[in-house]
Amino acid sequence: MAFFSAATDLYCSDLSADFTALSFGRSRVLHLYFLTFGLLGGLFKQANLVLEAAQAIVLAAAVTCFFYAAMTITVYVFAITDDFSRLVQIIPWGFVNIRYWSHVATLILPLLPLGLLTVPWRENRLWHLGVAFTAAVWWWVVFMSSSRGSMVGLLVGFCLVWICFGKIALPWMKLFIRFAIYGLAVWLLLSVLIPSMVFDELHIRGIKAHSSGRMPLWQEAWAMSLKNFPFGMGSQSWLTHDILTEAYQSSPKFGHPHNMYLMWAAEYGWISIVGLLVLGSVAFRRLWRRAAVIRAGDNYSILFLVAFTASVTAAMAHAGVSAVFIAPGSMLIGLVVLSVFWALISPDLKPVVSNQKRFSFPAIAGFLVVIAFTLAGSLWFREVLRYHQAMVEDFVYYQENVPQGMLPRFWLHGNFPRHPSQMPSGN
Q1: What is the pTM of this model?
Q2: Which single residue of 142, 199, 302, 317 could bond 156 by disulfide (Cβ 3.0 to 4.6 Å)?
Q3: Three-class HEC string of the chain
């Protein structure tokens, strides 16, 4: 679902059939996404598998990130031996855009301390070294790529955990800070010390103090959100609307306003933001109550709640300056993280009455809802595949006809409406 929601957001087709199908799909994808993590969280809770699901995510994250970190060091060594000094052009590797990686890092880094706090073999020396190495490399890449969104998001998540849990979160907080220090040390070694000895010129990506071109985008999104207050200008309108502000008219037009909340307000209206605030308020109230319950009992459970709270909070904060919930990687990882977080903060289930009917009305209704969503999703899936094929063919046109500086950061081709004269043959 995450990949195809991203594909739908890539760019719009103003051909009536494709555009209608895609607008229908994307106008509902956010509702489906938030509904899905609620349903998954409910299933984890119902099956009494919350901690098992959380542990599985932690183990998968630790192992996967270890191999990515090891390959990153391999890429680094090849770059040094090949006399390639601009490391930030090849690290992080494997992502279409450098910020796709940072979206994933924002969600993953708060979970890595659990690798030394909750797994059965946490006392194993080799495992301990592996997790520490993994966290150090991932933090190094955050510093090297100067990912301000990740840094701010992680800081916000850390502070919220400190406020909500206090001293009981100290084991996680100490490891989180230690891993960040490890990353800083690796940055000094691999990004400063070694390159200064190998290369004549040192290339270090600094932390920018300006908005990186975001302000015109935010102004445009704000103007859009007020155009049809409180309902917004409609799905895909960010890419199809008549430009409203002078600043946006004269700026390079990226494929996204770099603020998920302003984009939702622009397209779906401030009423959608109110709905999101209601959901956030419910989540925070549940979190506060759950923390109070666990605080008096199981310290093992509180560690999971602390880490997943920090991860979700960091991602939500990062979404205020980037496209966290549109990029495929962060949406896929965010879905399971949000699901487990929702299960962790959900109130305990009431005991099941022994003479309860096997097939209750809620169970049947839930089954019918799943069937309906499956059928609707299948139809949308077909239209997204058609759109993706058109996008791949359009890419050739935009490579040849659109200046490189006008290409968006997050998606494959430009932000100009598709006209028949621009369409590749065969569409």
Answers
A1: 0.79
A2: 317
A3: CHHHHHHHHHCCCCCHHHHHHHHHHHHHHHHHHHHHHHHHHHHHHHCCCHHHHHHHHHHHHHHHHHHHHHHHHHHHHHHHHCCCCCHHHCCCCCCCCHHHHHHHHHHHHHHHHHHHCCCCCCCCHHHHHHHHHHHHHHHHHHHHCCCHHHHHHHHHHHHHHHHHHHHHHHHHHHHHHHHHHHHHHHHHHHHHHHHHHHCCCCCCCCCCCCCCCHHHHHHHHHHHHHHCCCCCCCCCHHHHCCCCCHHHHCCCCCCCCCCHHHHHHHHHCHHHHHHHHHHHHHHHHHHHHHHHHHHCCCHHHHHHHHHHHHHHHHHHHHCCCCCCCCCHHHHHHHHHHHHHHHHHHCCCCCCCCCCCCCCCHHHHHHHHHHHHHHHHHHHHHHHHHHHHHHHHHHHHHHHHHCCHHHCCCCCCCCCCCCCHHHCCCCC
pLDDT digits (tens, 9 = 90+) for 131-156: 999 999 999 999 999 888 899 999 99
Domains of the chain, residue spans: 2-207+215-348+369-406
* pLDDT tens digits along 89-102: 888 888 877 888 99
The closest of 110, 141, 163 to 311, measured between CA atoms, is 110
